[in-house]
Amino acid sequence: MAFKKEIIEIIETKDVWVGDIEAPVTLLEFGEYESEACAKANEVVKQLLEEYEGKIRFQFRHFPLTMIHQRSMKAGEAAVAAAQEGKFWEMHNVLFANRRNLGTTSLKLHSKEAGVHNKRFLDNLVNAMFGWQVQGDLREGRDRGVKDVPTFFINDEKFTGKVTFPELSKAIDEALKQAKRKKPAKQRA
After folding, report:
1. Is the residue at 117 inside a domain?
2. Residue 38 within a domain
3. Does residue 16 sit within a domain?
4. Which of 47, 100, 106, 146 is the most buried (most CB within 10 A)?
5. What CATH number corresponds to the domain at position 64?
6. 133 located within any domain
7. Backbone φ, ψ for residue 54 (5° rounding)
8. pLDDT digit string, tens, across residues 41-73
9. CB-based contacts of 16: which residues, under 8 Å, 6+ apart?
10. How many beta carbons lie within 10 A of that of residue 34, not counting itself?
């Protein structure tokens, strides 16, 4: 008797966005859930998404600094697990709100708060089912020159200013101007 192999398609973090998918500006962050600086940056990003609604889209990629924050890897895996049910952003915000309490058992409780219903959530975490996705983000971050968190990219250009609302707004405004200048050239072609 032949066994039918079950194929599980995993939603990758590179496929998870918030904001208008057609937005002219892409804001990308490499970060992790135990970092105070990333938690502060998350609040700035929320403001930016509100201020620039329809003009930016945002993506969070995992860059766990496991030498400093031992639980950041599993927290990233928990966010990827939540993404499988369309609850990435809910879990993302719950993890930041509970960044000092990210043990594996706590992650299961946080998943419920985020609205995740997968009964195998804890098993998936223990077995590192989504570890490859977090490792993939980490590898991509290193390839892009990321060394610390949070690190932002605006339309694939590394942002070098301070991670504050005024500084990121200025950079987004500049990216919007550049996008406007490029758009008419596309329309003529």
Report:
1. yes
2. yes
3. no
4. 146
5. 3.40.30.10
6. yes
7. 85, -10
8. 999 999 999 999 999 999 999 999 999 999 999
9. 59, 60, 83, 88, 89
10. 23
